[in-house]
């Protein structure tokens, strides 16, 4: 029995997958609960992604009522079904080059459960991911626990993380990174094969986004009194090499510490749980479409340049990297990792080597992720070189928070030689 | 430690101030406390060689110590003023400084011996600096970086320089840090010195790479009691501050590995660009010429090449930037200053057609980061010596020994409010970057 949500809600939403019904879900639940006599007694399916929401994923909320074979009391569980949806052939064409669906399915099916098991072996185990119920390769669907039910919410991406949130985010990230290094050590190759991150050596599908936004940044610099033509000229040169220089940061170097990157580690890809006084209690990581085997520089520069408040980004990165390193090393030690564990100093040097990525993230990803103009906010507007696209991208750079950030960061990047094109 | 460091630590030596022009009536030669070989005949001979004028004749000479009486530990500075006539009949007044050894303190002699500072300085002044100057002239650059050498006397272990004091150069106040203007001036000179040295080394088949006895080297640990002793004094001080226990603990744990960490900075790192480093570049080894009216710094000269060593530019950059600057520059502007230095450095290399690959600014920045322990070492263990104001028992022995007097001297260095501020504000930064970790 399926209850439909109210009509006026569903017509603005993407419809739920047609194959999602009780006969589909019952065998999965029987398997999960190890009870062949289990029966589904009720099912509520509610679409959860509004039309116009982002890119190629569709989310559906499922409320399942069931009876175990030994019980008379019905139980309730909540799941999210995440599916790919071809709402825009242009967008899905690009995204499929990045293998986002395959990556995420593999992560939820094979990788995350193993990482969770490993973290369970450490001195301070904690939950990092939503529990996977099922991954369906045929339907390209992932079913996992609905975190909203356990009161997880998104934080405000326009404000960014304060110190407490940032430390929580780094603790979780460090544990994921450590567990992944150990997993690949125990099962060589299982994770090194992930190589379709946002920048990769297989496709430059997002090149237009990166290059266009460098140009817009240059236009902004030219009219900004604190920056001026000097920076405009430099940014136009950087534009020519932004893809190559950024991709180099992703290339794993044999003598360095590498592990599985989340690949898109920012505010909206973690779910927060808050206490009575709005204090952050816990955090769950979501959205594993861009995982790749690389240097921690990838996740760390991405996180610090999209997701944290300015004081933290400008003044507290060093001590926070130290904190991340402490958790990383502790976790590696707990799991008896025998591979190369970088000292703090070695990590610092490795991050400096990859610091061009902080530049591209600041100019490009940050602009997209903290964008506050929601009209015309879609993939085409990011990519296309038409008037609508140009206006949208120009509008992104009217964002005050972005402007203040770049006025401060560009001179710092320049002092380190990060805006110089040398090859 | 260089002679000038110790001179500075004492602060009993009057600063070299501009000498008022004397009346022309003094016609007799005067020799006050000069080394015995320093006679009028000797000086006339040296002047004749320098000016290549065999008929040059001294009219009179005034010689007196440039330092106060009794303050010598291995080096003597003598001021010479000489009136002489040239073969063309013209009269000239010359001002010179004579730097010579002195058989004084046996302990100091023995301790300094493996660092070979006197021979090295003479060699540098005689054979190296003139070539660096020639390289600059090659590209039409007329800047003066070093004092003009008048004579090098190996036999008497002495050097004669032009007396820069007479040209209006003075030593900046070592208790105050240098401001942005002077700092940039010095960095410009340093960059040109480094660049020309790299080119010279390339053209002369690695001739400069034999200079491998800097403060930390693979031959001797004789200065360990000074460096490690200062670290320990710093630790004692820091441990007294509430909230700083973890820094004191880390500093304590560094003791067994401290000398090794220092040596790694001086080791040649593969792939890095290397230069002839001054080795002891701080306020007291810089002379500045100020505009008489505005007080603006016009020019700077680098002196004292006793600890010259082949290695990373970091050896000079971190040493200078972590001992000699105003606090705000020291804490927050080093990266920008290094970028300024690098602009002059790379431009000079390019003009001289340096053949080896020059790093990009970011690569250079990364190379400096690999050597950044030296910034921590200098801020913690060297700056406090140089800013010390309790000078009663401040001498070479106090620095190098481990007795009570030596401990007292070192503790005094850390009572200085400037040293305290540097430690309080910079230790957390160093610690956060892993520079206080025994396992780096």
TrEMBL record, chain A:
InterPro entries: CHK_kinase-like, EcKL, Kinase-like_dom_sf. The lineage of its organism: Eukaryota, Metazoa, Ecdysozoa, Arthropoda, Hexapoda. PANTHER family: CHK KINASE-LIKE DOMAIN-CONTAINING PROTEIN-RELATED, PROTEIN KINASE-LIKE DOMAIN-CONTAINING. It comes from Drosophila kikkawai (Fruit fly). Residues 142-334 form the CHK kinase-like domain. Signal peptide: none annotated. This is CHK kinase-like domain-containing protein. It holds the Pfam family EcKL.
UniProtKB/TrEMBL annotation, chain B:
It holds the Pfam family EcKL. Residues 159-351 form the CHK kinase-like domain. Signal peptide: none annotated. InterPro entries: CHK_kinase-like (IPR015897), EcKL (IPR004119), Kinase-like_dom_sf (IPR011009). It comes from the Eukaryota. Gene3D superfamilies: 3.90.1200.10. This is CHK kinase-like domain-containing protein. It comes from Drosophila kikkawai. The lineage of its organism: Eukaryota, Metazoa, Ecdysozoa, Arthropoda, Hexapoda.
């Amino acid at each position: 029995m399926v209850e439909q949500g109210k009509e006026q809600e569903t017509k603005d939403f993407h419809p739920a997958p047609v194959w999602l019904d009780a006969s589909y879900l019952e065998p999965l639940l029987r398997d999960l609960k190890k009870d062949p006599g289990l029966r589904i007694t009720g099912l509520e399916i509610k679409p959860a992604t509004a039309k116009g929401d982002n890119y190629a994923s569709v989310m559906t909320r499922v409320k399942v009522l069931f009876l175990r074979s030994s019980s008379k009391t019905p139980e309730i569980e909540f799941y999210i079904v995440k599916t790919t949806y071809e709402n825009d052939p242009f967008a899905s064409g690009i995204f499929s080059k990045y293998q986002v669906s395959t990556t995420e399915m593999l992560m939820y099916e094979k990788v995350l459960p193993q990482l969770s098991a490993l973290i369970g072996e450490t001195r301070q185990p904690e939950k990092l991911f939503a529990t996977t119920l099922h991954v369906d390769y045929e339907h390209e669907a992932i079913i996992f626990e609905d975190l909203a039910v356990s009161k997880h919410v998104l934080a405000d991406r326009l404000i960014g993380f304060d110190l407490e949130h940032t430390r929580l985010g780094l603790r979780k990230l460090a544990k994921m990174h450590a567990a992944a290094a150990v997993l690949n050590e125990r099962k060589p190759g299982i994770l090194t094969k992930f190589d379709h991150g946002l920048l990769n050596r297989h496709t430059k599908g997002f090149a237009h986004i990166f290059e266009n936004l460098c140009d817009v940044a240059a236009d902004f610099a030219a009219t900004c009194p604190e920056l001026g033509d000097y920076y405009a000229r430099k940014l136009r040169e950087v534009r020519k090499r932004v893809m190559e220089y950024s991709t180099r940061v992703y290339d794993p170097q044999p003598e360095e510490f590498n592990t599985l990157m989340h690949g898109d580690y920012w505010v909206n890809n973690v779910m927060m749980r808050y206490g009575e006084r709005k204090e952050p209690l816990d955090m769950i990581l979501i959205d594993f479409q861009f995982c790749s085997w690389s240097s921690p520089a990838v996740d760390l520069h991405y996180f610090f340049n999209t997701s944290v408040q300015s004081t933290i980004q400008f003044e507290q990165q060093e001590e926070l990297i130290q904190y991340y390193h402490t958790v990383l090393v502790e976790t590696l030690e707990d799991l008896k990792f025998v591979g190369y564990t970088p000292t703090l100093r070695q990590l610092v040097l490795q991050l400096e080597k990859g610091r061009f990525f902080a530049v591209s993230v600041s100019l490009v990803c940050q602009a997209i992720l903290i964008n506050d103009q929601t009209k015309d906010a879609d993939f085409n507007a990011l990519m296309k070189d038409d008037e609508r696209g140009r206006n949208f991208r120009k509008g992104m750079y009217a964002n005050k928070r972005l402007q203040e950030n770049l006025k401060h960061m560009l001179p710092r990047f320049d002092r380190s030689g990060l805006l110089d094109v040398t090859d | 430690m260089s002679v000038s460091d110790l001179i500075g630590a004492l602060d009993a030596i009057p600063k070299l101030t501009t000498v008022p022009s004397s009346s022309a009536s003094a016609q007799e030669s005067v020799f006050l406390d000069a080394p015995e070989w320093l006679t009028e005949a000797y000086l006339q001979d040296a002047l004749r060689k320098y000016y290549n004028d065999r008929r040059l004749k001294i009219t009179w000479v005034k010689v007196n110590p440039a330092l106060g009486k009794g303050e010598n530990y291995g080096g003597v500075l003598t001021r010479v003023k000489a009136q002489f006539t040239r073969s063309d009949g013209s009269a000239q007044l010359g001002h010179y400084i004579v730097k010579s050894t002195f058989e004084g303190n046996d302990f100091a002699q023995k301790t300094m011996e493996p660092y070979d500072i006197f021979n090295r300085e003479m060699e540098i002044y005689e054979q190296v600096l003139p070539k660096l100057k020639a390289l600059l002239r090659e590209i039409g650059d007329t800047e003066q970086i070093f004092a003009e050498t008048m004579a090098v006397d190996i036999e008497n272990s002495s050097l004669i320089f032009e007396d820069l004091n007479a040209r209006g150069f003075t030593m900046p106040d070592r208790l105050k840090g240098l401001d942005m203007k002077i700092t940039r001036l010095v960095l410009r000179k340093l960059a040109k010195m480094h660049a020309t040295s790299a080119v010279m080394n390339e053209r002369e088949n690695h001739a400069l790479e034999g200079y491998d006895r800097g403060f930390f080297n693979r031959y001797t640990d004789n200065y360990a009691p000074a460096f490690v002793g200062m670290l320990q004094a710093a630790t004692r001080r820091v441990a007294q501050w509430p909230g700083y226990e973890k820094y004191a603990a880390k500093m304590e744990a560094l003791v067994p590995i401290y000398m090794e960490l220092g040596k790694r900075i001086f080791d040649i790192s593969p792939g890095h660009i290397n230069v002839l480093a001054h080795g002891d570049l701080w306020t007291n080894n810089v002379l500045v010429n100020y505009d008489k009216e505005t007080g603006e710094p016009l020019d700077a000269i680098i002196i004292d090449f006793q600890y010259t060593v082949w290695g990373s530019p970091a050896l000079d950059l971190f040493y200078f930037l972590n001992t000699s600057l105003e606090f705000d520059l020291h804490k927050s502007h080093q990266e920008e200053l290094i970028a300024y230095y690098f602009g002059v450095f790379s431009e000079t290399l390019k003009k001289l057609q340096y053949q080896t690959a020059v790093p990009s600014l970011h690569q250079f920045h990364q190379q400096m980061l690999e050597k950044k322990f030296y910034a921590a070492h200098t801020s913690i263990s060297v700056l406090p010596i140089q800013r010390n104001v309790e000078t009663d028992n401040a001498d070479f022995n106090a620095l190098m020994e481990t007795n009570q007097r030596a401990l007292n001297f070192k503790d005094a260095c850390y009572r200085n409010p400037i040293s305290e501020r540097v430690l309080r504000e910079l230790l957390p930064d160093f610690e956060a970057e892993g520079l206080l970790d025994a396992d780096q």
